[in-house]
Amino acid sequence: MLTFVGLGLYDERDVSVKGLQTIRDSDLVYAEFYTSRLMGATPEKLAQLYGREVKVLTREEVEVSPEGWLGRAKEEKVAFLVGGDPMISTTHLDLRLRALRMGIETRIVHSSSIVTAVSGMTGLQNYRFGRSTSIPYPYVAGGRRIVAMSPRDVVVDNLARDLHTLLFLDIQPERYMTAGEGAALLLEMEEEACGDRFNSSLGVGVARAGSEDAVVVADWLRKLVDRDLGGPLQILVVPGRLHFMEAEALVALAGAPPEILEMAEP
Ligand SMILES: C[S@@+](CC[C@H](N)C(=O)[O-])C[C@H]1O[C@@H](n2cnc3c(N)ncnc32)[C@H](O)[C@@H]1O
């Protein structure tokens, strides 16, 4: 049996009671922290609270060659721990399907996710979000700096349908993208596309959801570039047309410019 256990948003205490029981009842406990990270926890702190050794897997061990550790789930109870809610990540669905093809039974223990925390913290309503996307750091190829354009296309498409866009921000071993960096990259993409669609767009940054010092900041996208939200993890939202209650929430909860109240729909 392979059980995906969501660990929630910030530290080792965010796991559910059911998740904790599942971990303690497992023969083997694995984790991955490259799709998301619990910034308030270390593998040692997890092991201490859970009372079990936690083997942290690399991206390659999860995506390229998981057969070895996955195969153990044919005979033994294996827990696979991940940040947030397990299936808010295509990697984990892929792993689940792979396990099923190997004849392994699977289960999920759900947990809180950044996807729902963002609605909770900002007041932006879940049903008004369109497709979400990720912003990767630019990379250099052939001496040229390459900025992926697809996040901009997703935002433009959602804006055309009056929908909000949730933008996951790149996590790398030695750096974490901030909401300000994400906003700057979106503006750079729009400039590259010779457009000006984001001139009157808002940006909402959320930092360290689930922690004692979680922060939510709303400002014009071009101004968000210079706003310091502190440490990781962070996420960015570009809202579409706002319902009046959403606008009121952004002003009250995230310090958005009050003039957005006049632009909101009743
Ligand atoms: C690909 S998502 C993984 C989602 C996770 N499975 C979940 O359900 O929460 C990871 C991205 O979400 C954002 N994120 C995750 N946890 C966060 C937190 N506690 N505060 C702010 N952003 C967070 C970051 O942008 C990070 O790169």
UniProtKB/TrEMBL annotation:
EC number(s) recorded for this UniProt protein: 2.1.1.98
A Pfam family this chain is assigned to: TP_methylase
Biological process terms in GO annotation: methylation; protein histidyl modification to diphthamide
Tetrapyrrole methylase domain mapped to chain residues: 1-173
Assigned keywords, A-Z: Methyltransferase, S-adenosyl-L-methionine, Transferase
MF GO annotations: diphthine synthase activity
Known catalytic reactions: 2-[(3S)-amino-3-carboxypropyl]-L-histidyl-[translation elongation factor 2] + 3 S-adenosyl-L-methionine = diphthine-[translation elongation factor 2] + 3 S-adenosyl-L-homocysteine + 3 H(+)
Keyword Cell membrane assigned: no
Annotated metabolic or biological route of this protein: Protein modification; peptidyl-diphthamide biosynthesis
Binding site for S-adenosyl-L-methionine: L9, D85, I88, S113, I114, L169, A209, Q234
Function: S-adenosyl-L-methionine-dependent methyltransferase that catalyzes the trimethylation of the amino group of the modified target histidine residue in translation elongation factor 2 (EF-2), to form an intermediate called diphthine. The three successive methylation reactions represent the second step of diphthamide biosynthesis.
Family the entry assigns: Belongs to the diphthine synthase family.
NCBIfam families (alphabetical): dph5 (TIGR00522)
Annotated PANTHER family: DIPHTHINE METHYL ESTER SYNTHASE, DIPHTHINE SYNTHASE
Subunit structure, as described in the record: Homodimer.
Name of the protein in its database record: Diphthine synthase
Native source organism of the sequence: Methanothrix harundinacea (strain 6Ac) (Methanosaeta harundinacea)
Lineage of origin: Archaea, Methanobacteriati, Methanobacteriota, Stenosarchaea group, Methanomicrobia
Gene: dphB
